[in-house]
Every structure is written in structure tokens, then in C-alpha cells.
What we know:
Layout: H1 3-9, E1 16-17, H2 18-25, H3 29-41, E2 45-48, E3 51-54, H4 56-70, E4 77-80, E5 87-92, H5 95-104, H6 109-118, H7 120-128, H8 131-139, H9 145-158
Antiparallel strand pairs: 1-3, 2-3, 4-5
Helix pairs in contact: 1-3, 2-3, 4-8, 5-9, 7-8
Amino acid sequence: MTTSLKLLSLMDENGVAIDKLSSETGLSTRTVKRYLRELEEKGLVEQRGELYALTAAGLKLKKSLQALRARREAPPYIVTDPSSGAQIPLSFRNYKQLLAIIDAGLADKSVLEEHMRKYLATWVKDSLGDEYLAYLLETGAIKNLDDLKNYLETILKALGDQA
């Protein structure tokens, strides 16, 4: 698991002291502070006095990681041509498969981006329990396939390629 996500998994909405995070991770307090600043810049944690707490977005990401660890595969996401609705002979059940489709260019980029903008948020939330990715898609924080690919790679790395 990446260090930032490990810290995030140890936190809650009530707040945790840097010393506690340092002792639980074995990292120096200086290193913990650096990672917390990065998480704060991303809007995932906020400082409350001497404590750091998860924001609403941070809590969504933490819950999403827990849900993704618990689920191995979801009902298939069937890729269709957005203009005609015709089914493209392509589907995926998890993030590893979706990443492979993007990497290999198995579907037209415009088709995948259309699905990403219009339909993927509902599937990841309902089928995989990933409320954080749904939030990023719905708010436009993930703007293109490269952004989606970066997110998928980060999550797969954090989960040990099991999602």
C-alpha cells in the first residue's frame, strides 16, 4: 500500500495525532507531516489543532479502499457505442481489466471517455463500492483516460493488484 493511503487508512473523521501515526507506521514525524501535507493538498485530510482528520472526500476514499479489498469482481460493465447503443464485444469486472483495456487500446478512446463521463460513476459506486472514484468522476476531477489510468494504477498498487 502506498504510504499516503496507509496513513489515510489509519485515520478517521475525529482526528489522529501525528505522533500516533508515526508510531503506527514506523515513519518519522517529519515524514508523516510531509505525507499529511500532500493529503491535505488533495482535500483528503484537514488539520484541526494538533490532530489531522479525514475530510468527506478522505472518508469516501477510505471506505472505497475497504470495499475494493472485500470485492474481487463485480457484475460486468458492458461497453456500448454511445451514439448507437450497440454493444461492443468488450466488458470488464474489475479495475485490473479496465486498466488493461485502456493500456491496450481495445476500444476507441472516444468511446471509453464517453462512458467515463456518463456511466462509469454509477457502476463503480454500485458494483464495486468505490464512492471516491464516483465522486471524482461526477465532479470532473478525473477529466480524461490518463487521469482515470493514474487513479486505477494507484488503487491497484495500494491493494496489491487485487481490485
